[in-house]
Design brief:
The complex is a heterodimer. Chain A is built from 3 helices and 9 strands, in the order ααβαββββββββ. By secondary structure, chain A is mainly beta. Chain A has one domain. In chain A, a hairpin with a 6-residue loop joins β4 and β5. The longest helix of chain A is centred in the first third of the chain and has 6 residues. By secondary structure, chain B is an alpha/beta fold. Chain B folds into 3 domains: 77 residues, Ubiquitin-like (UB roll) (Roll), CATH 3.10.20.440; 228 residues, FAD/NAD(P)-binding domain, CATH 3.50.50; 120 residues, FAD/NAD(P)-binding domain (3-Layer(bba) Sandwich), CATH 3.50.50.60. Chain B has 10 helices and 26 strands. In chain B, strands 8, 9, 10, 11, 12, 13 and 26 form a 7-stranded mixed β-sheet that branches. A 5-stranded mixed β-sheet of chain B has the order 2-1-7-5-6, covered by helices on one side. A 5-stranded parallel β-sheet of chain B has the order 15-22-16-17-18. The relative contact order of chain B is 0.12. The chains are: A mainly beta, B alpha/beta. At the A-B interface, α3 of A face α6 and β18 of B.
Chain lengths: 167, 484
Amino acid sequence: MSYKNGQALNDEELAPQKPSAERLQRGPVAFIECVEQIPCNPCVESCPQGAITMPGGLNGIPRLDTDICTGCGLCISCCPGLAIFVVDLSGEDEASTVSLPYEFLPLPEKGQQVMALDRNGDELGPAEVTRVQAGRRLDRTPVVTIAVPKQWTLRARQIKPISRSSS
Amino acid sequence: MPPSLRLIEHPILTFSRGRRVSFTFDGRELHGYEGETVAAALHAAGVSTYRKSPRLHRPRGFFCAIGKCSSCLMTVDGVPNVRVCIMPLREGMVVRSARDKGQLPQDDPPAAWPWPGRYRPQMAKADVVIVGAGPAGLSAAVETTRLGLETVIVDENQRIGGQLIKQTHMFFGSREHHARVRGIDIPAKLLERIDESRARFLMGATVIGFYDDRTVAVVRDREFLHLQAGKVIVATGASENMLAFDDCDLPGVYGAGAVQTLMNVHGIVPGRRVLMVGAGNIGLIVSYQLLQAGVAVVDIIEAAPQIGGYHVHAAKVLRSGVPIHTSHTILRAIGREKVEGAEVARVDENWRPNPGSERTLEVDTICLAVGLSPTAELLFQAGCQSWYVPELGGHLAAHDENLETTVPGIYVAGDVSGIEEASAAMLEGRLAGLSAAESLGKQLPPQGKDELIGELKELRAGPFGEKARRGKGKMFEEAWRHVV
């Protein structure tokens, strides 16, 4: 297993957690990138729709009912592993969005250009910040939404400020 | 002048520094802030060598930063062998680097010595004495005070919370284990549940030994106290493991916990470029915390072929561009007075470095996250039978499922009873508190202990709980049968 060797999750490892192509087309949906049996379950309680369950109890792997998930993103900042993302591929054009937890400074502002990174930290390219959620309820885990071309939606998982050298 | 190592902004923490104070280090005037330790102030002032080793005169800095390893012994206001990593900084302090084992003052009674006159202790009594105010100790106090027992909690540190006070990340587990709550916010939640009228905290106080009849000897500042306890709960935690490699004693080689203390308690970064050794949860979490503090993590290496920590922790650093190299080890630290680099290499299946695979990394800090060992010395001095359980971190005081040791009335909880996560420590603390209360004749809430034992089993049920499960199994079955 590649991730056990300190690599990012590959497509095969992510497949069981990945919402179906049809569901991805339909609108925003959570992508829970949590594939190990670890004793942790706050995501279950975080979902107002009850879309997340944990078969097998505390040490189970979270399961998302993508028909119930509205893509609201409340689970993102509730995951202690910062492993939940919300993706929206429903747009007609090439634009899609990724919402991700971002616990770094400076917190970007809406409209700002940032560098989108994939699961290995490799640069995908610039992306525009379309929404920044912070505040008490999120308890110091802000959620940043970026607009990215559709070929990056399932890859962009981190952002960083655009440095002078790379812009 | 290099940029300050002090953090101004942090995504999770706010640092409210105390009054600016001046002190001297080997005659040089330096500044720090009230509320920080001497070691932290020295590090922020750019001092990395705190003493010379007694025989070979090699430079030494701090390593554990929580008062456990004795790497940072210095002479403070004339008193030799002071652990400056837990010594609070005060205005006008005279700090001197140590070159040998120190001299006992020759005058009698010694003017600089902490105790006036003879060493006559004050006497006090308590139903329960808890050694350690971390997650286990505080949780024990929740139960003992709630059941009406006068409880004294003794801890060497100034702040209540043990190692929770530097855990900026959200905890795992379920709601009952404070899941989703950041470690830094847990001490306040536990304090809310402790009956204040029955709890007394002795902070900055060191338990120096046990006498008969569960009498605990405590030293605090200029006080010397004998605490006669009905029951004693030892929740002293663990200390960071060292790793042997060339020049591993150079200042700049720090334990992961020390890096957290410096960075998340005092708001001082350890350096600018860090090599993390160890990809268990601690190594991965501290790497992420270094990134949050704006420090570059150049590489994370792990000698085993697989990472030991949760993938979600690895994913957080990987997507920020930090590489993780499994089957890699550190060969040597580079530098004369402090770390200026590190040489790492790939290892084969027999853990031997592959010739030709050596790489040199330009780093100013080598952070070791290679496991913890239970701080069980006090228990052994008290006469508790020891037992070696590698799955639980090494030598431990043998204990039963109620967490009582072989010395009746002495209980263990948390990392000192086996290395695990803080969630387990909190459950064990409550269990030890209930066990102690029960043996003092208190009526326990129905299912009190069974429920906690069940929750501990659930926490250890998954693949990541395998070591603890196996270790505790060995402890409760073979070890306990053997020692009793």
